[in-house]
Amino acid sequence: MTLFRKSLATIVFGLLPFIVIGQDATVKTQSGNTDEIITAISLSEQLNEIADEFHSQFEQNPLGLDPSQNKRMMDLFRKAFDKKTLLNNVRETFQKKYNASYADSVVKWINSDSSQKVLHTKKDYFTLQGIRKRVVNKYELEQTPPSQTRKNLIDSLAKKTLAAKSKINANVVMFRSVVKAFSQLSDQRSFSDAQIENFVNNYRMQMSTQMDEEIANELLVMYHNLNNNVLRNYISFYNSEPGQWLTKTTKESIQSAFDSAANHFLESVDKIKSVK
Amino acid sequence: MNKRLILLLILVTSFYGCSTTEKATESRTNKSNKEKNIDFSTLREPPKDWYQLDEKQTQFRGISSEKAYQKLLKNKKPKKQVVVAVIDGGVDINHEDLKNEIWTNKDEIPDNNKDDDHNGYVDDVHGWNFIGGPDGKNVHYDTFELTRIYRELNKQFSTVDTTQLNPQQEENFERYKKIKSSYEQKVHKLLTQYKNIESLDQSMTQAKAILKQHFGDSTYTYEDVEDLQPTDQQLNFAKNVMSYVMKNEIDSAMIADQKKQVYDQAKYNYNPDFHTRQIVGDDYSDKTQRIYGNNDVAGPGPFHGTHVSGIIAADRTNNIGIKGIATNTLIMPVRAIPDGDERDKDVANAIRYAVDNGADIINMSFGKAYSPDKEVVDAAVKYADEHGVLMVHAAGNDGKNTDLDTDYPTDQYGKNLDGGTANLWISVGASTWKPGDHFIASFSNYGDKTVDLFAPGYDIYSSVPNNKYKREDGTSMASPVVAGTAALIMAYYPKLTAQQVKNIILQSAKKYPDLQVIVPNENSSDKNKKEPFSDLSVSHGEVNVYNALKMAARISKQ
Questions:
Q1: Which residue from A minimizes the CA distance to B264?
Q2: Closest Cα partner for A118 from A243, A232, A217?
């Protein structure tokens, strides 16, 4: 072994722990940033609520499955679309789509005073007291409707964050999976793939007609006590490249999380079907 | 109950709303009406005074008080002026039908800012208000007891290290978990309720537009809607929505009212950050403190108390409005019940005030699921019991068996008084004008150990503030029917003791041995479970003034 070679080897081997440490630090930063972003924008809470709302609708058995079968189906749904699973999937997508520079900008933005106000308000919306306050805000908004400026601002926030699209997509994924599960479990009716897609398209259309308004109302209630300037400032970030990365990654992570949960759900339905 | 019953629109009036409707708003006291059989299944609204009518005379299953006045009291004069304390949210003492029937503290000189009678309360000319401050401000809304308990336990346990708890703390932690779970359920339910109302409102608007287009105008009837043969999805939707809406008489005013109720609950009743005691200015931690409040007996929301008072003692001689059940009876308003859950300390003090200032009867149309300072209420109830004051209490509007699930206050003393029971206590459930299996109001509590008897508590027409009158439902209305009955007996037979009056009311209750009724159960999936009416209360019956007065006459001669 020449000295050079030796020294190279020494350098290679000598550096290795540092490289590993360096990589570890990057992974940790990536994972830390991802978690910070996901937590700050209350993504997990949002997804959980979307799944919960859907569950409570289909828990009432609108498809007319045998009640015990419906209960079984919705129990499996609950397990597949649980908060932790959805969160893990979201985290995975965020890490796949990770861009260090954008993520750093997002984290910086998250920690700014004015963003904190908005994000704190958003977080509060999903807490127990936030749920109570929703009723208060809804009623007060009905009594004193928001100005056109306020409505425009909220519309702008909804559009820039693609909130309606994400929610429609998530609901469509859940709907398709439940109809498929129904078709498998029902003794009375089963549907072809084409029929299912037909139902899904109708469902998507129905959702599309009302979702923009629903999201706007939701955001009006959520940010009821925040003034326009704070909101305007917050929204402006979504025009930047890091902001657009955040929007895109968020949308994709939601889609991916629900797709993955739907697959798990249908797999578990398959299992009980085969036991049956 | 003073906390107004939230009737989820989905459940509203499903028992009482009928498709084809008839109004019978005029009194049917004359016999000729008996000839015509009333179709109760299609009757929408009974006569305003239905609850005072006699079934044999009119087919309406009332308490036969008018019959008693006609046949038993016609040539008799009352021998005593009876005082009924109404512990409630306030009474409009200037109401045209009540102003001559309000108790006056003759030992108190009005507005001189002095406690002339030395009872501790300054200028308590017509009663007292325990939920007001010395500056004249009043508590209107308050939290529910569940919220208050949650608030306190949450402070202690929300961040506690559960691995370091001693056995006592563990027990309290278990309680915290239960309370938290109940509180969470209630909060989530609020949002669901509000969304349901919103959704119905939107559907109603859409359906009306579709039907207007279909019929050409908005003059269509329920029958027109029912007869529709929809050929498309839209019309089918409109038919379903409007059939439901028209059948249950849902209109925009009702929707607005329901929304306001849910809003009030969210803003005040379930809000752990909402505090009221600074308004009263008492030392709330001192449960033995007696002297606080002000003399505003109406307060900001005297609707409920005015309705209750009218049932008991509205002026029978002025030929306006309504006739109270009792004559020669004065109402002593004692304000202690906010729009929310009453506080044990205020209830205890209100009972003591009533006793100390000469009430013969106390009407208590309120209740709650938790009573953290039960011992102070128990002591006050015992005080009333020992002083011969009859307490009449609404059984509650939760549609539950109170033998299994207590509603407070109760006649059962706690450990502090070594158990035992108050003797002079009557708990009253609500009945309806429906003679069939819907005879018990769907919301009424019941229990063959804890509910003494039933009394009309549905569609009860009585006085409300500003010289108005309105129909209301609740065991809140059933309780004053019994309080009024007791007052009437006491007025004519003053030598009877309160215990005798109670016994007479229970023993003379009208029985329906063969009647099977739907058991109220708001939490059960089996909404049509039936049981014998006689199994749902201690007395097995419904209060009947005619029978009671006859029995009182007999017993008073002994």
A1: A136
A2: A232
Residue A53 touches chain B, beta carbons under 8 Å = no
Residue B429's alpha-carbon distances to A9, A158, B51, B340, B538, in angstroms, are 92, 52, 14, 21, 11
Distance CA B189, CA B151 (A): 19
Hey, are the CB atoms on A131 and B272 less than 8 Å from each other?
no
Residue A132 to residue B260, Cβ atoms within 8 A: no
Distance CA A59, CA A32 (A): 37
Whether ipTM tops 0.90, in short, is no
User: Any idea which residue has 């008991």 for tokens?
Assistant: B312
Strand ranges, E, within chain A: none
Write out the H or E segment, with its range, that includes residue A80: helix A67-80
Closest CA of chain B from A131, distance in Å: 7
| B393 classed as catalytic | no
Cβ(B483)–Cβ(B83) under 8 Å?
A: no
Cα separation, B430 vs B439, whole angstroms: 9
Q: pLDDT tens digits for chain B (558 residues)? A: 443 333 333 333 332 233 333 455 445 444 444 457 888 888 888 999 999 999 999 999 999 999 999 999 999 999 999 999 999 999 999 999 999 999 999 999 999 999 999 999 999 999 999 999 999 999 999 999 999 999 999 999 999 898 888 999 999 999 999 999 999 999 999 999 999 999 999 899 999 999 999 999 999 999 999 999 998 888 999 999 999 999 888 999 999 999 999 999 999 999 999 999 999 999 999 999 999 999 999 999 999 999 999 999 999 999 999 999 999 999 999 999 999 999 999 999 999 999 999 999 999 999 999 999 999 999 999 999 999 999 999 999 999 999 999 999 999 999 888 789 999 999 999 999 998 899 999 999 999 999 999 999 999 999 999 999 999 999 999 999 999 999 999 999 999 999 999 999 999 999 999 999 999 986 666 668 899 999 999 999 999 999 999 999 999 988
Indicate if B452 belongs to the active site.
no
User: A147-186: string of b/e by CB count within 10 Å (b at 16+)?
Assistant: eeebeebbebbbbbbbbbbbbbbbbbbbbbbbbbbbbbbb
Give me the residue from B183, B184, B263 closest to A136, CB to CB: B263
Q: How would you write B164-184 as a 3-class SS string?
A: HCCHHHHHHHHHHHHHHHHHH
Alpha-carbon gap: A231 to the closest alpha carbon of chain B (Å):
25
Contact B266 A128 (CB under 8 A): no
Residue A40 to residue A83: CA distance in whole angstroms: 16
The answer to whether A142 contacts chain B (CB < 8 Å) is yes
List of chain A residues whose C-beta atoms are within 8 Å of the C-beta of residue B271: 132
Cα diameter, chain A: 85
Structure token pair of residue B332: 């002593």
Query: What is the crossing angle of helices A241-275 and A163-185, to 10°?
Result: 10
C-alpha–C-alpha distance, residues A37 and A42, integer Å:
8
State which residue of chain B sits closest to A130, comparing Cα positions: B187
Q: How many CB pairs under 8 A join A and B?
A: 40
Region for residue B454 given its phi and psi (left: phi exceeds 0; alpha: psi -120 to 50; beta: otherwise): beta
Shortest distance between the Cα of B267 and any Cα of chain A, in A, equals 6
State yes or no: is B275 an active-site residue.
no
* Chain B neighbors of A133, CB-CB under 8 A: 266
Distance from CA of B519 to the nearest CA of A (A): 25
Contact B148, B372 (CB under 8 A): yes
Domain locations in chain A?
Answer: 3-274
> Where do the domains of chain B lie, and which CATH numbers do they carry?
81-142+283-557 (3.40.50.200), 146-269 (no CATH)
Q: How far apart are the C-alpha atoms of B250 and A32, rounded to whole Å?
A: 54
Minimal Cβ distance to B190: which of A135, A140, A142: A135
